[in-house]
Amino acid sequence: AKEVGRNTYEFYEAELNQLAIRRHQLANELRQAIKNEELSLVFQPQLNIKANKVIGAEVLLRWHHPILGNISPAEFVPIAENTGLIKEIGAWVLDNACAKIAECQKEGIDIRLAVNLSALQFRQVDLPESIASVMQSHRIPPRLLEVEITESMLMRDVSQAIDILERLKEMQIRIAIDDFGTGYSSLSYLRRFPLDALKIDRSFIDELVVDADDTAITLAIISMAKSLRLEVIAEGVETAQQKEFLAQNNCDDIQGYHFSRPLNYQEFTDFLKKRVDT
Ligand code: C2E
Ligand code: CA
Ligand code: CA
Ligand code: CA
């Protein structure tokens, strides 16, 4: 048994080393990724259930490494955050998302895009000004840009967060709280932020209807959002049953594989045009 224990330990140690090595490698290669044009954006459409209309799309980052293949943002975004590279990458995402909004407008498509902000980006006090200058350079109306931030980003420094959000709001940018329900923000705090929407975290939607607790939490979030006059969107909706339940319980919008997977730009504009035609 002792022998097994030691081998297990060595196995874990080896695995940990491999993880550290991979992280180090990815951090180095991420520096080149923008220059080498290995990063791209995909767009996941969001549906307003009642109107049966696409109301916007979330912008999601993709990294195709020439040797390692596709690397998930769930793996590389935290690395980018730890190394500070997220500042450059976040700026790239914002610039490209605004370019796509402008491109869509030229094609006669008025579509709102939601961009994920990282904690480090959100802490930059000149964030509102830098967003303003990107929007101006692409000549896009601010109502077509939404930012997604998490509860923990709000709670870290509440007064600074209020200040930044109020400046974004003055610019008429839409603000959504991402992964809602996984943090610990209280109702009284939420009221203090100028928010537009809550995104119910995927973890509650996964077992919606099946799991009593997840169902109760989802219903509570919807009713809380409504009482604060916020729009509410459920993410990770994969089945018709989940959509039906959300529709019957006053959830405004859905996003998830049931409606559409994240699409590349060409697929995305085709998707939007097809829906207008029918
Ligand atoms: P997130 O912001 O919660 O994004 C939603 C994730 O759920 C995306 O994963 C999306 O592809 C996935 N998803 C959407 N619908 C479904 C569904 O029906 N079922 C399941 N199982 N998954 C679904 P993705 O693209 O891998 O992104 C992972 C995370 O990486 C994001 O979570 C976000 O935190 C981060 N991320 C992605 N792009 C960016 C970015 O441009 N900037 C920053 N700071 N973070 C980003
Ligand atoms: Ca998000
Ligand atoms: Ca989310
Ligand atoms: Ca998430």
UniProtKB/TrEMBL annotation:
Domain of life where this protein originates: Bacteria
GO cellular component: membrane
Domain EAL: 23-276
Single GO term (MF): cyclic-guanylate-specific phosphodiesterase activity
Stretches of the chain forming a coiled coil according to its record: 9-36
A biological process from GO: signal transduction
Alphabetically ordered keywords of this record: c-di-GMP, Coiled coil, Membrane, Transmembrane, Transmembrane helix
Protein name per Swiss-Prot or TrEMBL: cyclic-guanylate-specific phosphodiesterase
Species, as recorded: Aliikangiella coralliicola
